Amino acid sequence: MTDLFAGSWRFVLSAPNVTSLPAEGPLEVAFAGRSNVGKSSLINALVGQSGLARTSNTPGRTQSLNFFVPDQNQADEETLPPIVLVDLPGYGFAKAPKNAIEAWTRLIRRYLSGRATLKRVFVLVDARHGLKAGDLDMLTMLDRAAVSYQVVLTKGDKIKPPALTRLTGETEAAIAKRPAAYPQVLATSSNKAIGLDELRRTISDLI
Predict the structure, then answer these.
(1) For residues 107 and 123, what is the distance between their CA atoms, to the nearest angstrom?
(2) Mean pLDDT over residues 128-146, rounded?
(3) Are 81 and 207 in contact (CB under 8 A)?
(4) Under a CB-based contact definition with an 8 Å cutoff, are residues 143 and 180 in contact?
(5) Nearest by Cα to 71 from 20, 4, 14
(6) What is the pTM of this model?
(7) DSSP labels for 177-206?
(8) Which is nearest to 87 in space by CA: 69, 74, 71?
(9) Residue 143: φ, ψ to 5°
(10) What does the pLDDT look like over 93-115, one tens digit per residue?
């Protein structure tokens, strides 16, 4: 965990469509979730760089698949990074034209169902609301595609600790029989740094 997240990270590519996806190489972990659930904020908090992934209060700002890797020394330019973080467009409500939202949805589905190097998808769920219909649709799609995923509660500082503990347990019970779900649910807060070390360890352990 220390080595992977100790240094800086950099943006490498934005893929607005399937043909612009990078060639498969190192392992990838993707962050999915409803629009404005806090995907970009969580990625920034994980790597300790506030401006790496673009954040916005406007749902639907992330319109492409954005790829981030650990920065490497000049001598290591030819060496593949150990892992790639992928920020996916949000699903559900977004302030964007309907045809654009449909295009993002197709792109996400194609990526999630056909990426051999995709090691795990972290499905982010707002702790204030719990699993919603859009989240369940995403879980079902991942189950059918046999893509390993793990639920991560975001904005955990917005509810009281006992409620966060209760929601974590309820969410674990709700996904217990889903075939592609990792059983442990992680509770996080980008603002208060809750659960970030545990998520970093989880990502590091995937390598």
Answers:
(1) 17
(2) 94
(3) no
(4) yes
(5) 4
(6) 0.90
(7) T-TTB-SPPEE-BTTTTBTHHHHHHHHHHH
(8) 69
(9) -60, -45
(10) 556 667 766 777 788 888 988 88
